[in-house]
Every structure is written in structure tokens, then in C-alpha cells.
Amino acid sequence: MSTVAYEIVDVFTDRPFAGNPLAVVYGAADLGSDQMHALAREFNLAETVFVLPPTQPGATYRARIFTPESELPFAGHPSVGVAVSLMRRGDIPVGAVVQECGAGLLPIEVHAAGSATLTGASPTLGEPLDSGPLLAMAGLGGDELAAPRSAGCGLSWTFVPVRREQLPLIQIDNAAAARLDVTDVCFFSWSPESREAHSRVLIPGSAVPEDPATGSAALGLGVWLVAAGWLPPSEVSAYRIHQGHEMGRPSLLECTVTAESGRAVSATVAGHVCPIARGEIAVPPFVG
């Protein structure tokens, strides 16, 4: 029976059994897409990342990222987690590396202490949305704090600002989410004095319906904050995100967003990675 090596790590935390768990599968060059998907379903974590040789000039390695349901072009905690894991194995150096993935070539700065800083892809921003249906979908009421809208840097999320005390009360109505065609949503509270957010990231109807730490949403939140005028329009702003507390997996994401003329032009997210387990897993039969 053939096997591949894997590791489980917790991302966006400096202690084990917090943050967002990730499966990293090494030596995946000979695996087909169906085999990767089967392994992701077996691990049944929010994401599993597969390490392959790069195919584009300038890339240090290539990453393919799968949820139990599908392949993603990009995700934040797999990108941070795989970079630190490869560094600890001695496969890539400390310092600047470039990850090849479905969203393109993404710069990552890997730190010897066991953390990494990811620069997201080009920011995108959607049109303002009506908050009423989104709040009702989450079982919440109250006044609109600012217009929800989608934003991202390689993977978009819908951002809905709420009051801090509302976050523990969220209960997603999956039928309502399906009617609204909402699949990736971040509810967050914001403290302008400390530039800190507390957030919950929900994926209604998925095998993993809530994420304890979401790098792609952390990047997108910076884009939203600039567009809403909650961060300065023309400078580099640092902000923090606390996530996962309602799930018993506290996480900390350290972020920056660079803005010019009221528009976000780039964003970064950084965090630590804790190794949890390692071993070998059987290669699934090739399906096609």
C-alpha cells in the first residue's frame, strides 16, 4: 500500500489546540485531483493543503487547497500553515518565498520563530448590500452599523458589522442562507480605538460550518474597513482580529492594509503555526 506523509498543524495561534487546524500533505506531485479530494474528505478539516513542485517561474513551491467539498484557488490559513511547515522541515528557507496557487503567485515572509506573513492578491470590493436579510439569517436584529458588502484579496467574503455582544448570539438559518445565496460570511465587531475586530466566519451548509481563524477573511476585512472609512484612506494601517472564541479555539490574526485615495491596494495577514501531529496516510485509489 502506497502512502504519503502528512502533518497536522494549528494556524494563527502560538499554542496547541487553538487556532485553525490544517492538514499538510507532502510529496503530492503524483496525486490526482480526485485523490486529493478524497484525502481532504478523510481529514474533514476546513482545509487540506497539498505540496507540489512549482510550475511557474519565480515560485518556491505550489500549493493546492481543498475543503471537504471542493478545491479553492486560495485560502489564508493553509498558505501560512504550509509555509511555516515547509520551513521547519528544511524544505524552504527562512525569509521571502513565493507560493504558487490558484490565485497566482503570492509573497510570503517566513520567520524562524514559527510564523509567516502572507500578502494577499489584488483587492476586490462588491457593492453595498441590505443588512436586514443578512441579520435575520443570523437570528439577529438591530440597526445597520454600516452597509454589508463583499471584499477579498484572492477569496471574497461578505462582511456584516454587528455589536460585540451580538456575536455569541448568531445562529445561522441554513435555509435562509440558501435563499440569499450566501455561502461565505463574516460577522464582526470593530473597536476604532484599538483597531481590533472580533469576528465569526460562517460557511452555511458546508461540512465545516464555522471557521476558527480565516486568513482570507482577515485580508478582506481590511479592504472593507478602508471602503467604509473605518480605517484611514491613504496609509498603511495595522489591525488585529480575534476569532474562534465562541468555538473554544481562540485565534489571533495580525493584519495590515495599504490604502491609496480611499481604496485598499494591498493587505497582509500574519500568524503563528503550532505542530500537532504527523504520520503517513494511504493513497486513495485513483478515480480519474
Query: Uncertain segments of ≥5 residues (pLDDT<50)?
Result: none
Order of helices and strands: EEHEEEHEEEEHEEHEEEHEEE
Mean pLDDT: 96
Task: Work out the helix count.
Answer: 5
Q: Helical residue percent? A: 10-25%
Number of strands: 17
CATH homology superfamily name of the largest domain: Diaminopimelate Epimerase, Chain A, domain 1
Q: Work out the strand percent.
A: 35-45%
How far apart are the first and last residues' alpha carbons, in Å? 19 Å
Find the structural class using helix and strand composition. alpha+beta
* Top CATH class of the largest domain: Alpha Beta
Q: How many domains make up the 3D coordinates?
A: 2
Overall morphology: globular
